[in-house]
Amino acid sequence: MVGACYMQAFLEQGHSVVGLCDLRPNAAVADAVQAAGAQVHTAPGAWLAEADVVVSAVFGTVARSLFEACLPHLRDLRDLADGVVYVDMTTADPQEMRECGELARRVAQGRAVHFVDVAITGAVNLGGRKTPLLVAGGKAGFVQELFLPLGGSVRVVGGQPGDAAALKLLRSIYTKGTEALAVECLVTAQQMGLREQLHAVLQDIDETPLRTLMESMVRTHIPHSARRRNEVAEARQQMARNGLAPIALPAVEALFAATARAHAAQPFTGTSTDEAIDWLGSHVLASRP
Question: Model's pTM, two decimal places?
Answer without folding.
Answer: 0.84
